[in-house]
Design brief:
Blueprint: E1 3-6, E2 9-11, E3 17-23, E4 32-38, E5 45-51, E6 56-58, E7 66-71, E8 76-81, E9 90-98, E10 101-104, E11 108-112
Parallel strand pairs: 2-11
Antiparallel strand pairs: 1-3, 3-8, 4-5, 4-9, 5-6, 7-8, 9-10, 9-11
Amino acid sequence: VQLQASGGGLVQPGGTLRLSCAASGNILRFNAMGWYRQAPGNQRELVASITGDGNTNYVDSVKGRFAISGDIAKNTVYLQMNSLKPEDTAVYYCKAQIYNLHYWGQGTQVTVSS
């Protein structure tokens, strides 16, 4: 399983970004996919996840601002990030899970700064 994350960058507070995680093969084979982030000095934390039947989950700090979705035809999971805040600055990673197997993509840097 290969996961290719993209879409990070530098954005001003209040701005938007959309991260993409392209998987090698059908994403429906995964039990769940998710986006994690890690800021300097912090532990990696789950930001948002989506299961194969479409259930989503978000960390409290991004609820109402971020949205995770999947495009089965493109084997891609997205993280739409709106109303970005400086505290959202981190390296964002996507992850796919098949039962007890976890696969990580490379990180993509998101920097929110004026």
